Amino acid sequence: MLPVTQAPTDQNLTNLALYAAIAAAKVILDIYSRPIATETKSDGSPVTEADAAAEAIILALLKPTGIPVLGEESVAAGIIPELGDRYFVVDPLDGTKEFIKRNGEFTVNIALVENGLPVIGIVLAPVSGETFVGDANGAYYCNTKTGVVTDNRPITVSNVSPMRIVASRSHGHVALASLCETFQVEQDVSVGSSLKFCLLARGDAQLYPRFTPTCEWDTAAGQAVLEAAGGAVVTLDGSRMSYGKQTQNFLNPYFVAAASMELARRAAAEMTKILA
Length: 276
Description:
alpha+beta, seven-stranded mixed β-sheet, 16 strands, globular
């Protein structure tokens, strides 16, 4: 693990992305500590000074790799690089609504996509320091609240019964009740931002259905973490959710994240029936 108190000196992309997320979290917390000015983007979603400041520092730290970066705030400004088959996907402040509410449930998301699939993911919650990492070596949790990686341990999904489902705190859907009944869900856990993927990756829940719109930067890092922990993310046709949908403005279709591919595909089929 890279000592995060100093800049990375090699090309270990997981460590570099983690370092960039920690640096962005520091900037975000500096802004979080004072009154927050909010603006509205053209799509009606809120944006703050922290979104732009965090993306700027991430872009600067990733630039030496020469790998293109698809960043949420850059896209909003009309800046979309030639992506190719390998690129970073960055949401510098996922859960801006949660940031404005000051409930702590917002994250920094950085992913690396190769050939349409996320292969590295960092999801960092600045307030708590909870950080989730996924890559080819598996998934792990650590805490970075002090700027140094501590409490580093592997995580994996859990298929315990009865099932727990993760719902969106800010984007609920009436079909959720029907899905819960079908799968005999014991408990639903409402949480903001991409932390939903991470709860599944850590075994705290088993199912996260998404009935409302998301963009690729909302999900790429969380998907990488969950898949590295043994879970799956599929669209309603049962295929693994992929990336690079520029002709669709990088919008994702509805999807299911789950503790296993079998559960994900069962839930996707049920969602298809519910939404028919």
